[in-house]
Amino acid sequence: MFKELWEFRAGLVEKNLQLELAQTQILDENLARAMEYSLLSGGKKLRPVLLMAAADAVNGTGENFLTTASAVEMIHTYSLIHDDLPAMDNDDYRRGKLTNHKVFGEAMAILAGDALLTLAFEVVTRQKNTSYAAILSVIRELSTAAGAGGMVGGQAIDLESEGKTIDMATLRKMHMGKTGALFRAAIRSGAILASANRFQLAALTSYAENFGLAFQITDDILDVTGDEKNLGKPVGSDARNKKSTYVTLTSLEAAKKLAGDAVNDAVDALKIFGDEAEFLREMVKYLVERDK
To answer: Domain for residue 292, yes or no?
Structure first.
């Protein structure tokens, strides 16, 4: 049931992304193709699905917030386009396809990422089934997560850390920004849109932070042990770029234990909820078992 609901909602997001692009004025056809190429390239749609699951945990209305869930996927896609650029991680493949800059050129890829990031905030303003105050709060959550205090700041630490051995505190700060911030914002946004009380919001925030940690540790593990075909991107990129990871700073076995501890903490954070949060429990457990 868990996987079926995930796939169903991922399909809803994919269809809604097509609708959002169709109603957006894009002056240049090549830019439109570049945006669509990465935005509609499949993927797990993990962050938007988590947003809807957080709303479910509060009052069971996750699909009412498909609009904002789609905006979160736009922000995530922008980050992937920019992360893959030669000046960043310099990757050739993403989700089993050539990266955006390999198809459309570096300059157009940068513009496609910029366009998706800014479009996301326009899309949030289209959200119905909630209050204007909630929409404003969500815009604050997403802009903070996407900016210097989140994804951009984390990427800056990542760039400055290449070829260096950094300590665990720096690694944690980097990934709390680069990876964890959008998970946190997506889950908190779903809760806010669904009118969560302060106890529910605090519990879901704790869940989100541990979810992001478990996700990143598992990602580091898969970069060592994963299969390139399953992952849809090259493995061993961390070693090639001489990056510190949870594996290199500890060991493979220690990293697996850290991931398991984060999963347990995430599940424990949901103890105030009943069956309405079961999807979230299953999702974080799935993280450490995934192979892609």
So the answer is: no
Q: What is the dihedral of CA 138, 21, 150, 43, to 10 degrees?
A: 110
Describe the crossing of helices 198-225 and 181-193 by its angle, rounded to 10 degrees: 150
> What pLDDT, in 10s, does the model give residues 58-103?
998 999 999 999 999 999 999 999 999 999 989 999 988 999 999 9
Residue 234 CB contacts under 8 Å (≥ 6 apart), including other chains = 91, 92, 93, 228
Say if pTM beats, i.e. exceeds, 0.90.
yes
The residues, ordered by sequence, that sit 6+ positions from 107 with a Cβ below 8 Å of its Cβ are none
Chain segment 127-162, per-residue pLDDT in tens: 999 999 999 999 999 999 999 999 999 999 999 998
Q: Give the range of the structural domain holding residue 27, as residue numbers without chain letter.
A: 2-287
CATH of the domain at 174: 1.10.600.10
